[in-house]
């Protein structure tokens, strides 16, 4: 049959380019091992001939789709599955081809952005509670010493941010994309700030308000279901953690201009977000970005850090401090992936098998991408441009003195 010869040629081509601990099992009992030197750690089972199309062009997008949609079954440890998938893609696909680090152009508006946020964050609060830390912080943790558990690393991350922006008692803080409220609660409790948190997720909005009330902080914290573009007023401090990935490349200057407009003359802001390491703002290679766009973050776009800094200046902001936390996010995503794996039955019950498969791949794949410098994570501190140099700190000592 035609597909048999095509499959054999494909297997031979992959074998010639890579040594993969992979076994392929077909519906008719046929099987192929992709290396004679190493035992197979991962087994891919193909239930029918129609599923072969996903393998013959093995981008991370097609392989991920085949797994999520039940076109193939995969057996093995999650980290090894991700490693083999990347090995297949890199052995067969050209990095400069259609599955390379391409840049997509996406039109953003309030309606589309709200829809994308709801798709990602409104799976269910229980779903996220099963694999995040107790405070449900869904962003890169800060492992100051490297041996912290996730709960303490997330608290350290929040304190790290609030110390960097030098928040003081009585100052008002705007948190753009406040999630389930962990940062504003900590800012009010420990630092005495008055806070406004905005989110487009109804699930986050409801639970964040509950948590604020339970903490007895309703007089210090207001949680709003609101687009950041609709916020008015003046704030001493502004934070945005894991949100600007949804803004869009063409909107970054506008986004930072809005922060500038909301920031007090002597205010300080911080943007904490994922960036691509491709200098042309290209997405993750081998189709990884396509998978994320389709299944995880619709309309998401990652800028290069150079583009971020340029856009900040275009928005009237001066960059004061830049810190790379790539290693921290590789570890964070790895812990999240392990948590999902350990509680797989509960995660399926809180959502469904399809969501479990999506997030299982996404988190483990993200850990792989951060580990290999496909993506990074930067915290950037900024203030309004044109202020006196005398108001800048002499060193970064203030960030660590309190610790």
UniProtKB/TrEMBL annotation:
Keywords: Lipid metabolism, Methyltransferase, S-adenosyl-L-methionine, Transferase. The keyword Methyltransferase applies. Residues 15-92 form the DUF7884 domain. It is an enzyme of class 2 (transferase). Its EC number is 2.1.1.79. The keyword Acyltransferase does not apply. GO terms for biological process: lipid biosynthetic process; methylation. GO terms for molecular function: cyclopropane-fatty-acyl-phospholipid synthase activity. InterPro entries: CFA/CMAS, CMAS, DUF7884, SAM-dependent_MTases_sf. Belongs to the CFA/CMAS family. PANTHER family: CYCLOPROPANE-FATTY-ACYL-PHOSPHOLIPID SYNTHASE. This is Cyclopropane-fatty-acyl-phospholipid synthase. The lineage of its organism: Bacteria, Pseudomonadati, Pseudomonadota, Betaproteobacteria, Burkholderiales.
